[in-house]
Design brief:
about 80 residues; mainly alpha; 434 Repressor (Amino-terminal Domain); about 70% helix
């Protein structure tokens, strides 16, 4: 289960981005990070701090807990 939370956050970020029809580059610009960094986040390869999760959630207007919720993907696709 190591790194499972990272993967969950990544899946949820991807679900949010895709539901809004944004490219990875456009989404990275929205959040204020580089496209390659966003790719690493979406693949669950980046170890985010809780503050980073809060900041990203604030930028996209969602509760940070939704990004960490294993079922958050379904809520974000709406």
């Amino acid at each position: 289960m190591e790194g499972e939370l990272q993967k969950t956050v990544g899946r949820n970020l991807r679900a949010y981005r895709q539901a809004r029809g944004l490219s990875q580059e456009a989404f990275a610009d929205l959040v204020g990070v580089h496209r390659t960094y966003m790719g690493g986040l979406e693949r669950g390869e980046r170890n985010l701090t809780l503050r980073s999760v809060e900041r990203i959630a604030e930028q996209i207007g969602v509760d940070p807990l939704v990004l960490m919720d294993p079922k958050g993907e379904k809520r974000l696709r709406r």
